[in-house]
Amino acid sequence: KRVVVFISGGGSNMLSLADACEDPGFPAEIVAVISDKPQAGGLAKAEARGIQTLAFERKSYAGKAEHEAAILAALSDIQPDIICLAGYMRLISGEFISRYEGRMLNIHPSILPLFPGLHTHQRALDAGMRVAGCTVHFVTEGMDEGPIVAQDCVPVHIDDTPDTLAARVLTVEHRLYPEALALLATGGVSLKAGRAKFDPEG
Ligand code: GRF
């Protein structure tokens, strides 16, 4: 399966997906990395691996619609089977998502539905959580609320700060996202009537 990864920053999740795709037996290949930030550190890392990169700086476009139209035009040339959002810090319109319904994943650094949105680790600590974690979900119009594909958790240590907890969760993200992508790429999960359907034969 042809995968395009969207990033806005360092792209550590994109790199873990790229590492997984380097295994010839892995059921997906990253054909491009797209960012809304031309300076995103992940773009240079992708290029160093020979992956095509494209940057669409938001302020270069009149509005959200024009920005998304430019990205969609590039995607229609690339023809990805799957889009993986990985540290992509921009909400995508329902119209855009509908083009890739059931073929677009996102990773979020909390055990959804707990803590959608930002500052998830600080909020988990403030809530006194004893576990934290991450979720890979289908992207739907609402933010961080699509049907869940995969989750995993880590213990919260009593001396954790948001940064120490984020680092522990990120390690799990880097394992979880490739697993979730492989599940989607092999038909082990699909989006049916707004729910994630798992196929044991998948
Ligand atoms: C990660 O916590 C990810 O879950 C969130 O953004 C953070 C940075 O991701 N979406 P990356 O290092 O840019 O992949």
Automatic annotation (TrEMBL):
Q: What is its EC number?
A: 2.1.2.2
Q: Where is the active site?
A: H108 (proton donor)
Q: In the UniProt record, which is one GO cellular component term?
A: cytosol
| UniProt feature coiled coil, ranges | none
Site features described as Raises pKa of active site His, chain residue numbers: D144
Provide the alphabetized UniProt keywords: Purine biosynthesis, Transferase
Q: Name one GO molecular function term.
A: phosphoribosylglycinamide formyltransferase activity
Q: What Gene Ontology biological process does one annotation of this record name?
A: 'de novo' IMP biosynthetic process
Please give the function described in this protein's UniProt entry: Catalyzes the transfer of a formyl group from 10-formyltetrahydrofolate to 5-phospho-ribosyl-glycinamide (GAR), producing 5-phospho-ribosyl-N-formylglycinamide (FGAR) and tetrahydrofolate.
Q: Which family does it belong to?
A: Belongs to the GART family.
The protein in question is named: Phosphoribosylglycinamide formyltransferase
- Origin species: Rhizobium soli
Gene designation per UniProt: purN
